[in-house]
């Protein structure tokens, strides 16, 4: 039986990350933050929520690599914000002895991380970062591993256990002894739309060989109850992810003699909260819609429009919007009927 992985882009994760093709995260950030985000779209982002999500992913789908990636320590007592600053500081100074680091570098890192940016807090931020010496030394001792607290590890382990024991989600994280279905994790794919290179990495592809159905799945971890996921779905434009990923995968499946008869289902999101541990499966039934999606009375742009627009700015190295293109009118900007500014009409003269 042919493996779905044979159709994937067989590169390691670092190669995938380094490739400049547009991904969901880049398209989403650009759509949410606008033109000002362009210079920073490829910056590496590390947040506590992203680290926790990756930790759960690793425990679920690649537990053998856990010890190579993470260092668990009960000594992590600094706040998440201070951790981010200390990690940046460590990267900037190359692991220099902590007490030898100049205060100016600490202030610089704090500002880059939006930690007490105003200089009136200079003494406070320096004091709090200096108090994090123990965590800084842990980063040095970890030799490139991600340092996590015992508490965070236990929370991630609880999420994993909830997912593999819940009746609605367990089949996506176990091996079928009969071989009727397979689960593939973190498969990578590449595609191209017009002149735009695209890429995606899918958390899970569940392949049912009996029914000839492939279900694409993304795993989301949260600190909010699972039933509140639609709020995050709208905020982070997960509709872009679902539509883009399915479009790339579907195009690849159609070209393969073995998998071309398989049906690609609507995208599903499995959500688990570290607080409630009640996994829910959400289906996005607008996955195959070509031009964006609608949530309630709000319309969202599709990945095609966003990708073409962003690619034009990236390839011409423009970082400021050209208000002639893509925006052509006040109505288009606001998405509803508004007045049109007519440049042929003179401004009324001032009267006293």
Describe what this molecule looks like in 3D.
This protein has 352 residues and is of the alpha/beta class. It has 13 helices and 10 strands. Strands 3, 4, 5, 6, 7 and 8 form a 6-stranded mixed β-sheet that branches. It has a two-stranded parallel sheet with strand order 1-2. Strands 9-10 form a two-stranded antiparallel ribbon. Helix 3 (48-61) crosses helix 9 and helix 5 crosses helix 6. The radius of gyration is 24 Å and the shape is globular. The N and C termini lie far apart (85 Å). The model is unreliable at 335-352 (pLDDT under 50).
Q: Which secondary structure elements does this structure contain, and how are they paired or packed?
A:
Elements: H1 13-18, H2 24-33, H3 48-61, H4 66-69, E1 70-73, H5 80-93, H6 103-112, H7 122-130, H8 133-142, E2 146-149, H9 150-165, E3 181-193, E4 196-208, E5 213-222, H10 229-235, H11 238-254, E6 263-264, E7 267-273, E8 280-284, E9 293-295, E10 298-300, H12 303-315, H13 330-334
Parallel strand pairs: 1-2, 5-6, 5-7
Antiparallel strand pairs: 3-4, 4-5, 7-8, 9-10
Helix pairs in contact: 2-11, 2-12, 3-9, 5-6, 5-8, 6-7
Give a brief outline of the structure.
The protein is α/β, with parallel strands linked by helices and 352 residues long. The chain has 13 helices and 10 strands.
Output the structural class. alpha/beta
Q: Radius of gyration from the CA trace?
A: 24 Å
Estimate the helix proportion, in percent: 25-40%
What fraction strand?
Answer: 15-25%
Could you tell me how far the N terminus lies from the C terminus, measured between alpha carbons in angstroms? 85 Å
Number of helices: 13
What is the global morphology? globular
Q: How many beta-strand segments? A: 10
Mean pLDDT over all positions = 90
Main β-sheet: number of strands, strand sense, barrel status?
Answer: 6 strands, mixed
Element-level helix/strand string: HHHHEHHHHEHEEEHHEEEEEHH
Low-confidence sequence ranges: 335-352
């Amino acid at each position: 039986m042919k493996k779905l992985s044979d159709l994937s882009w067989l590169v390691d994760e670092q190669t995938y990350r380094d490739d400049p093709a547009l991904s969901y995260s880049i398209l989403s950030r650009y759509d949410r933050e606008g033109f000002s985000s362009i210079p920073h779209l490829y910056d590496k982002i590390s947040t506590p929520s992203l680290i926790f999500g990756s930790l759960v992913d690793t425990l679920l789908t690649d537990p053998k690599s856990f010890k190579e990636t993470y260092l668990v320590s009960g000594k992590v007592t600094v706040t998440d914000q201070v951790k981010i600053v200390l990690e940046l500081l460590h990267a900037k100074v190359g692991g220099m002895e902590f007490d030898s680091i100049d205060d100016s570098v600490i202030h610089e890192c704090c500002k880059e991380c939006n930690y007490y940016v105003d200089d009136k807090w200079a003494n406070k931020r320096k004091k709090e970062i200096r108090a994090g010496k123990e965590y800084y030394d842990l980063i040095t001792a970890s030799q490139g591993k991600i340092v996590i607290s015992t508490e965070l590890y236990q929370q991630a382990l609880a999420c994993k256990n909830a997912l593999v024991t819940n009746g609605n989600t367990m089949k996506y994280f176990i091996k079928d002894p009969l071989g009727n279905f397979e689960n593939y994790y973190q498969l990578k794919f590449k595609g191209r739309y017009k002149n735009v290179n695209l890429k995606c990495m899918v958390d899970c592809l569940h392949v049912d060989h009996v029914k000839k159905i492939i279900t694409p799945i993304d795993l989301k971890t949260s600190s909010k109850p699972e039933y509140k996921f639609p709020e995050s779905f709208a905020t982070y434009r997960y509709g872009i992810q679902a539509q883009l990923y399915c479009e790339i995968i579907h195009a690849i499946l159609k070209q393969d003699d073995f998998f071309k008869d398989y049906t690609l289902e609507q995208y599903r999101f499995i959500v688990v909260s570290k607080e409630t541990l009640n996994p829910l499966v959400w289906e996005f039934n607008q996955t195959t819609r070509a031009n964006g999606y609608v949530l309630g009375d709000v319309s969202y742009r599709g990945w095609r429009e966003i990708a073409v627009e962003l690619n034009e700015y990236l390839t011409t190295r423009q970082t400021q919007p050209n208000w002639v293109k893509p925006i052509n009118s006040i109505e288009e900007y606001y998405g509803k009927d508004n007045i049109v500014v007519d440049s042929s009409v003179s401004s009324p003269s001032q009267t006293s």
